[in-house]
């Protein structure tokens, strides 16, 4: 019979580290599954967590062989640790107990990272005392919570209860962490599933009262969360209805936008696609409906000859261009000392989307018509109207056809 060579201390340390890393990776993978690609948080399900824990060799009760008839690498490693260390189970429990006591000392001194390390060393011993293992995970959860690692603390609490379903301190710690993370509904499920089969022993009554108080707090939080969810659903429905109404109106007017808008898919539309943010504006502006159900627009007026601009808001689409500009040009701007930009001395244009030609907008044209000119494009929700002096028009503009011109 071949005698197996015992592992050296260095080999044993490496193997322990590998198993610990694998277990941590396994836990992280399970946490990642919880998030998936969904926007809404998936409820924390302790029973599901335990079922997944059972798949890891550290918690297997039935060791199944692979197709090749051998145990997996992890199971063989655990067996090696169990039989090759030279320690008896009693000695392992004593070692784990020592790490626990060391962690408790660090915890009392508020050295929580040191306490976490000590409890982890106790866990790595993998003694056969399930209650001791449960306490080690429970204590590590307490230390993790103190340094802000709430999700890790919850995983440790779940593992602690996996080792000892009667460990109500771990249940309470897990409930506190879940509540702090905002999982009120999951806290209720966690507590209810934990105390279902709890046997009141020793200091169980005070612990049950604490659990009951946490449950009552979770119920209040869950009611508040449900109100918030209902409010968000109402707001989302209202927002979608507003998007449908606006996109339908824009589609009816055959308007050309850059970036393109998902006119037929309001659920994909974001307000940011048409929001205007300029230094001249106090707040973001965007096209909207006024009290007469007409579209009202922010408008950029450019004076290319002098490099100046005006920004207007709430320009009703039914307003004639001349009516609005008459008001704007009635008094000279600071940069127009000679008041060259009088209503009777200027012409109005919009550019095609490729800036190849200009299209004249007559004073009697309303903005709804002007913005629908073929080739005109509204960029980032802001239509642009250009104002040229008639002197510039007569001197530099060449008419192509109709209201189309090129600047020579």
Automatic annotation (TrEMBL):
It comes from Pristionchus mayeri. GO terms for molecular function: Hsp70 protein binding; Hsp90 protein binding. This is Cns1/TTC4 wheel domain-containing protein. Transmembrane segments: none annotated. One of its GO terms (biological process) is protein folding. Belongs to the TTC4 family. One of its GO terms (cellular component) is nucleus. Residues 292-395 form the Cns1/TTC4 wheel domain. Keywords: Repeat, TPR repeat. The keyword Nucleus does not apply. Residues 214-236 are annotated as: Disordered. It holds the Pfam family Wheel.
């Amino acid at each position: 019979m071949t005698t197996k060579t015992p592992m050296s201390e260095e080999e044993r340390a490496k193997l322990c580290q590998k198993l610990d890393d694998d277990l941590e990776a396994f836990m992280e993978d399970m946490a990642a599954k919880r998030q998936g690609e969904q926007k809404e948080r998936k409820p924390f399900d302790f029973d599901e967590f335990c079922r997944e824990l059972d798949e890891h060799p550290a918690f297997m009760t039935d060791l199944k062989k692979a197709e090749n008839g051998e145990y997996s690498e992890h199971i063989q490693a655990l067996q090696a640790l169990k039989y090759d260390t030279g320690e008896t189970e009693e000695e392992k429990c004593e070692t784990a107990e020592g790490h626990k006591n060391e962690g408790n000392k660090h915890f009392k001194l508020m050295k929580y990272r040191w306490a976490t390390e000590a409890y982890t060393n106790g866990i790595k011993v993998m003694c056969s005392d399930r209650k001791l293992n449960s306490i080690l995970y429970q204590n590590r959860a307490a230390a993790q919570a103190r340094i802000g690692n709430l999700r890790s603390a919850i995983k440790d609490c779940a593992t602690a209860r996996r080792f000892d379903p009667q460990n109500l301190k771990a249940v309470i710690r897990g409930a506190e962490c879940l509540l702090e993370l905002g999982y009120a509904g999951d806290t209720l499920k966690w507590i209810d599933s934990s105390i279902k089969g709890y046997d009141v022993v020793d200091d169980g009554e005070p612990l049950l009262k604490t659990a009951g108080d946490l449950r009552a707090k979770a119920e209040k939080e869950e009611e508040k969360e449900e109100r918030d969810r209902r409010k968000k659903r109402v707001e989302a429905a209202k927002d979608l209805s507003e998007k449908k109404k606006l996109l339908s109106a824009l589609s009816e007017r055959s308007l050309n936008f850059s970036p393109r808008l998902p006119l037929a898919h309001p659920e994909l539309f974001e307000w940011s696609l048409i929001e205007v943010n300029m230094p001249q504006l106090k707040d973001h502006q965007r096209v909207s409906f006024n009290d007469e159900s007409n579209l009202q627009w922010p408008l950029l007026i450019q004076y290319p000859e002098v490099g100046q601009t005006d920004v207007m808001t709430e320009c009703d689409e039914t307003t004639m261009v001349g009516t609005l500009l008459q008001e704007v040009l009635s008094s000279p701007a600071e940069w127009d000392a000679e008041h060259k930009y009088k209503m009777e001395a200027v012409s109005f244009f919009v550019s095609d989307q490729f800036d190849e030609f200009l299209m004249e907008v007559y004073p009697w044209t309303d903005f709804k018509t002007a913005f629908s000119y073929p080739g005109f494009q509204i960029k980032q929700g802001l239509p642009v109207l250009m104002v040229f002096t008639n002197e510039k028009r007569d001197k530099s503009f060449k008419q192509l056809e109709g209201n189309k011109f090129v600047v020579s």
